[in-house]
Amino acid sequence: MAFLGSAVRRVVSAVRPPLSPLCRTTTRSYSSEPTKEKSVPYEKTLKQADGVSSGPTKPLPRSADVVVIGGGSLGCQTIYHLAKMGLTNVVLLERDRLTAGTTWHTAGLLWQLRPSDVEVELLAHTRNVISKDLEEETGLHTGWIQNGGLFIASNKQRLDEYKRLMSLGKVYGIESHVLSPAETKDLYPLMNVDDLYGTLYVPKDGTMDPAGTCTTLTRAASARGATVIENCPVTGIQVRTDDFGMKKVKAVETPHGTIETPCVVNCAGVWAAKLGEMAGVKVPLIAMHHAYVVTERIEGIQNMPNVRDHDASVYLRLQGDALSVGGYEQNPIFWEEVSDKFAFSLFDLDWDVFTQHIEGAINRVPALEQTGIKSTVCGPESFTADHKPLMGEAPEVRGFFLGCGFNSAGMMLGGGCGRELAHWIIHGRPEKDMYGYDIRVFVNWMCSECLSCRNGVAVFDMSYFGKFYLTGPDAKKAADWLFTADVNKKPGSTVYTCMLNKRGGAEADLTVSRLEPGSANLPLAPESNGEAYYLAIGGGVAEHNWNHIRTVLQDQGFRCQLTDYSEDMGMISIQGPKSREVLQEVLEADLSNEAFPFSSHKVVKAAGHQVSADFIKSGEFTLERMGVTYKAKAHLKSPFDPENKRVKGIYA
After folding, report:
1. Measured between alpha carbons, how far is 431 from 423 in angstroms, rounded to an integer?
2. pLDDT tens track for 106-146
3. Phi, psi torsion values for 600, nearest 5 degrees
4. Is residue 242 scored above 70 in pLDDT?
5. Are 234 and 338 spatial neighbours (Cβ–Cβ below 8 Å)?
6. Environment class of residue 505 by beta-carbon count within 10 Å: exposed (0-12), middle (13-18) or buried (19+)?
7. pLDDT tens digit sequence for 76-100
8. How far apart are CA 570 and CA 228, in angstroms?
9. Which of the 8 DSSP states describes residue 519?
């Protein structure tokens, strides 16, 4: 019998048979017995039985309004919500069987409280769909289990965070309670509470079953007229270019036929990047191994809530009379070459990587140290750079939508995000701000930056900003249409403005500089005989803004060129009441109020280079030019103590 505790203390020499023929490296495996065919902790999976035909489960239609690609949580939720919103000529294509990629082995946890109001709303909708709507519509049980959730606070800061979550939950009617260590022990007798400050208990959190959920979703969608086709891989995406140079989705190719469609939804999970390549769309996600182990029976664990310990990066999922123990590593294993043949498959578990979770789990529930391991589950999951999903229409191709990169949270965010995607496709951008996606928390070290900006001067490297030029015969018309403020001041002016969407909601804020007509004054600035504008946009939303502007230009038929120099130009921002004083020592120009007034820009010399200087806010200047950022920044350091510097700039 193998025990969790012994996995921390020793290495077992016996290696069990590989869980997947695609495991490329030799890893040490540890188990109480050889791994069975079905390792995931569910009553059933949708794995295809031997002898069943490998062809498509239904004939392919010649055309469809929307083709959803991928039969996991997001794909099934998206086609369900499309059909529910009245769009019934829709098709879901799954290369194997439903859930075969990553959904089938997911832990299926649903926590209702997150630090973002948007995510709280998305999670609430998922819970309603899984626990209520589907059963009412179909009479089928999705496998939802409401056993509650418990967040662990090992320090005061974490408990304060959970108190804020509780306050946010009250706004949305989510019941939650902050418990003392003693109250936590009463609720969860097997838990060690000696090192706890407290916990946050959410009684109506729970667990989802992937097979039951996806089966019920597709049945409900099919009942409304949608078509779900399994065993039908996608081999290509046809894209056409119209007379205005706009790329649009034309058709989806498979080995069994082609479906003409103006809209594709990429819900392919780990395989989403490969699918994007077929249409010329970049999908910035990466595949990693994600693992958990399933224990033998634990006396007294029945009916306990699921547990999430953020400080230890561990979760404990109730599995009948056992637990699933998993977590997220600081040294994850990447799946470098994603295979198209990987379906209902797993990797061998690397105990060198996974052991860190066992230590945290045993500390929290000491009974685990003498508990056997029934099975291990190590499968692929897709992750993004900012830990937020990729959603919406791709900027490269109109009609190509993304619903992928869910960072191991596709089951619990699936219902809410599936609904928003469906709304996006049918009605346009949803009302929820899917780009201001999470609440950013300011940390203590930022105080020094704020004080420097308020009392002295600070220099920030803002080269990550988007830098676009808008030129062409209709540039003025386009600017009038795009921007809320009047940007058609005299050449040399800079205006802070917003862009709005069709509903009148704010799409973005940015600065727009009207340029002098004629030959370019800077190496990268385009030459223009008519109107020309320079746009500076926040780096985190630059791609989104590019897509919005380009879409407007195309839809309105404006004869304009939008040029992106974001990767070629640097930008530094000098802020604070002493900024003018500092810059006057660096720039070969008169920076007095009369010569350089607020809301203006001009070409000047800095460190021997021509740069564009913008006075855009009281006490804030920016300098932009290709290749000059760090030279100018180094020159700016001279008036200050060289020790008085921070990660992204210098301060005085």
Report:
1. 9
2. 999 999 999 989 999 999 999 999 999 999 999 999 999 99
3. -145, 170
4. yes
5. no
6. exposed
7. 999 999 999 999 999 999 999 999 9
8. 49
9. S
